[in-house]
Predict the structure.
Amino acid sequence: MSRYNPKELEAKWQKKWQSDKTFQVDLEKAEKPFYNLMMFPYPSGEGLHVGHVYAFGGSDTFGHFKKMQGYDVFEPMGFDSFGIHSENYAIKIGKHPRELIEETTKYFKEEQLDKLGALFDWSKSVTTSEASYYKWTQWLFIQLFKAGLAVRKKSSVDWCPSCLTVLADEQVIAGKCERCGTEVIQKELEQWFFKITDYAQRLLDNLEKIDWSETTKTMQRNWIGRSEGAEIIFKLRDVPGQEDDKHSVTVYTTRPDTIFGATFLVISPETVKSWLDIGFLAKDEVKKYVDESLNKTEVSRLAEGKDKTGVDTEIKAVHPLTGELLSVWVADYVLGSYGTGAIMAVPGHDQRDYDFAKKFGLPIVEVISGGDVKKEAWQGEGKLVNSEKFNGQSVEEAKINLSKYIEEKNSGSKKVNFHLRDWLVSRQRYWGPPIPMIYCESCAKDKKGEQEGMSGWYSVPEKDLPVELPYVEDYQPRGSGVSPLASVPSFLSVKCPGCGKDAKRETDVSDTFLDSSWYFLRYPSVGDDEVAFEPEVTKKWLPVNQYIGGNEHAVLHLLYTRFITMALSDLKLINFEEPFDKFRAHGLIIYKGAKMSKSRGNVVNPNEYMQAYGADTLKMYLLFIGPYELGGEFDDRAITGVYRFLNRVWTLVEGLEEVKESNKELETKLNSLIKKVSDDLENLRFNTAIAALMEFLNLVYKHQSNLSREIVLNYLKLLAPFAPFISEELWEKLGEKGSIHQQSWPEVGKVVEETSWQIVVQVNGKFRGKVEVAKDSSEDQVSQEAQKIPSVEKDLQDKQISNKVWVKGKLINFVAD
């Protein structure tokens, strides 16, 4: 091969690495384990786009680096093949999802992933829709059920009328389905939930301990949404058919300092519906309003600028500190899912309450000085007024003192609240793991069941796992809130594990995010059919050393994964409670002004670029376009620059002649390059590392006549993580034995002291070039040399230098008038 032919040489090494099992690791014998993981893809059908190559390429480059540093790098890859992504694509093209996944996973692996030159160990792969995997997903569900963390309850849920399934809170973005963008609606259904809220504080506290991207941690903090306040009890009067003060409403507020400004109460439609259901309230106007409100999404109910609506229930509430009677309203801007589903309205200091009070002519009282409540709510700082003995106190003082006073009056208590809601895991679709639960009507009537408060419900005996997903020809969602599995009698009918009578299987399948919440635990134990994760290998390899993926999963996959790990730790099934020692979120690839994604229709298929330029060129180009954690704009016109660079590397090695004496300047620069590339790789600064490799190559060409073999070999090692194929080919061309990827990473030798500096030259703060000067040069000598640069000469023409800024060894800036 006399010229660089990436198509030919990449096929050659792909085949050889696979046959030699070059990248497989003996998990049991490994002495220096390093678990390097990237988020696995949805094999929905369209294939990988260059955004995936960017994500996987960065993670794999780091993996190659750690391998050459002497670590036993385990880098598995698999497919998140269950779920709505694959099912929707199957519906779109008119193919059964089981057949689709067989085709797409093969295409993803053989036509795309294998061609990247990555360290993927396919002997430890998982595909979530295979029974050998989802058997253990079902086992995991059962462990959570037995621990009281999986519960079934009736709830008003978000429903996507296009995808025909319920959605978890985290899957609704601005009132729309995160998958298809359809406006969601509300439905009341019985669903399975995981009690992630039991872990809210722990999930929050641990964010201070883990080495994760700060952007991801901030998103999780905001989603968990911890707030401190007080729950306050308001006794009720004028309840139809009820004694006064027999019933009460508890409100949650983060502003107990404003309690003297509460002039009415607002109850959520969800709470009032529960009153209606027990005959507590029967006003027709209220019932009609509640029904209308519950058909709206939470986002539409909370929309900015929305006209306030509500109905007076004609019930009164007793103010716990003043004894004043307050009217009680039902209004849709109060949500049943937050706090207690009721608020004390303080219109003087909350704009939503203010707008409501103005519309319905309700009292507005100022209790914090600083604004004009005749015009608008004052939401700033100030001193308390109209608040009896608390007048004059600051807001922060009053929060503490009024909370204590409310407690002393037995009218409430301090309370911590969270935005986080329990994880809704039921899906009324076909393509997913059947939820391994059985319902027995007979046991339900006798109030029997496997768990307290779950009459009639039993988990499938573990010996009967997996509950296999039957082949259903008509698998499309029904839209009735019932899974297609409900129409399969052979699947539905089963004997009750409790009483032995006829019972029915649960027909919902579980959320795809359950599949991906634990897959990292399964990888090292693939092949072991007796346990989900073998204890000894798990102890040796986990938690994951480094995980890389997208920030769009910060409150979906990543939060759920942390919860599952904590739960398994509490159940003594693993000995750690955070899944990933280090997590880094990669940036986004922008194309035609928008994030590259299938839903936007702006994806770029990497195959054509790998065919034309090779996988090395494509990967290096993507990693060069910007900082890895920020991303960059894809412009295929620029890819040729990287291709030319690799061609120059090829040409250099082709023309290499042995020299007896090495070049001292190159040795010095090589040592600096080793340090630079090593530091950059450790911190995922791929773009600056590649720039340094390119700059060094330019220097090498200047000294080509006395270029030593040792310098070239070390340079190829530095290049290998970024361009594994060409590095391997050139390593072989130079007659070296073994794979370059099994060599030791170059170490910084004794650095020969550099005798000169590269000085940045500026005029009025603007870069005008660089000048090389001896290290012992004085400021005046540097100044004289710098002024010889043509662009500096031009800028200073007819101008007076009023000042010079000299940073020794780095910069000189001429200030000219």
Summary: The first strand starts at residue 33 and ends at 38.
